[in-house]
């Protein structure tokens, strides 16, 4: 980008997933933001703590 907005970064977000990320990347945006990686099957994780 040039001119008075040269210091701005363009960020693409919302609706971006593994099936369309290449299209977004091809637009020339500076950053791609997605939370799609975190939409996997949840896990049940337990932690046991004890005093020594």
Q: Can you summarize this structure?
A:
By secondary structure, the chain is low in regular secondary structure. The protein is built from one helix and two strands, in the order βαβ.
User: Beta-strand percentage?
Assistant: 5-15%
Q: Indicate the structural class.
A: little secondary structure
In total, the number of strands is: 2
Alpha carbon gyration radius = 19 Å
N-to-C terminal Cα separation, in Å? 59 Å
| Unreliable sequence segments | none
**Averaging pLDDT over every residue, what do you get?**
85
- Figure out the total of helices: 1
How do the helices and strands follow one another from N- to C-terminus? EHE
Give the fraction of residues assigned to helices: under 10%
Outline type: elongated
**Order of strands across the main sheet:** 1-2
User: Main beta sheet: strand number and arrangement?
Assistant: 2 strands, parallel
Report on the architecture of this protein:
The protein has a two-stranded parallel sheet. With 52 residues, it is largely without helices or strands. It has one helix and two strands; from the N terminus they run E-H-E. It is elongated and about 60 Å long.
Give the topology:
Elements lengths: L10 E3 L7 H5 L5 E3 L19
Parallel strand pairs: 1-2
Keywords:
single chain; 52 residues; little secondary structure; two-stranded parallel sheet
């Amino acid at each position: 980008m040039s001119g008075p907005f040269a210091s701005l970064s363009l960020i693409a977000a919302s609706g971006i997933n593994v099936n369309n990320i290449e299209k977004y990347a091809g637009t020339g945006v500076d950053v791609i933001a997605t939370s799609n990686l975190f939409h996997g099957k949840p896990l049940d994780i337990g932690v046991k703590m004890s005093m020594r």
